[in-house]
Design a protein that fits this description.
The protein is about 20% helix and about 25% strand. The longest helix has 26 residues. By secondary structure, it is an alpha+beta fold. The termini are far apart.
Length: about 210
């Protein structure tokens, strides 16, 4: 092998290793993202940049109430009255990849994958009730200081409004309640579908810091 060919191969090896390490870091540790929708206003605004912590997914740790998470969007986002099962209020994921390559493309490269960003409202075993424009956890009104004044929490049309959060699941909603498609419509999110928690906001610079 001549020196030039050897040098080219060494560069190729270095690039491959760098790409693999970057993908592993992105999947297991953390990654940046851009806010694209309005469901978390006023807490998060479109085009703000966030750093996501994915260590919880790696360690299979449930997030805490009040934390903002990202999760894989369910395949079924709405239900009819006859389809609602309050005894099993778990979001449905029916379009899973069927082989290793498609799973890698979907879950690691995240090509063709849709994710939501919402706030954790209730944890496993907690009784959730949405009534009179408010949220109740185990029959006590939930204090939500992050909501804008006058925000009302309702279930529009058919949805989940009175149920117990299943084991290893969370119930999450957007802060912009009237413009958020969330667990009220499709049910609770299982742990294995939670991708990350929001660690901090890094853009714009005047908003740098933790997100509450």
């Amino acid at each position: 092998m001549n020196p030039k060919t050897k040098e080219i191969l060494e560069w190729i090896y270095c690039i491959i290793i760098a790409v693999v390490l970057a993908l592993l870091f992105r999947y297991y540790i953390g990654t940046p993202t851009i806010v694209k929708k309005v469901s978390m206003k006023p807490t998060l605004i479109e085009n703000q940049r966030l750093w996501l912590n994915r260590w919880g997914r790696t360690t299979k740790t449930l997030p805490q109430r009040g934390e903002i998470i990202t999760f894989e969007a369910p395949s079924k986002k709405s239900y009819t009255e006859s389809e609602i099962d309050v005894n099993n209020p778990i979001a449905k994921y029916e379009n899973e990849p069927t082989n290793i390559f498609s799973s890698f493309v979907y879950h690691v490269l995240e090509i063709g994958k849709d994710s939501y960003i919402k706030r954790v409202i209730a944890l496993p075993g907690e009784h959730v009730q949405i009534k009179d424009g408010k949220v109740y956890i185990n029959d006590e009104e939930l204090d939500e200081p992050y909501l804008q004044e006058g925000i009302v929490t309702d279930v529009l049309g058919v949805g989940f409004s009175d149920f117990v959060v299943p084991e290893n699941c969370v119930f999450a909603m957007g802060d912009n309640r009237s413009h958020s498609t969330d667990c009220r419509a499709f049910g609770c999110i299982p742990l294995e579908k939670i991708e990350s928690t929001v660690a901090f906001r890094f853009w714009p610079l005047d908003k740098w810091g933790a997100v509450e």
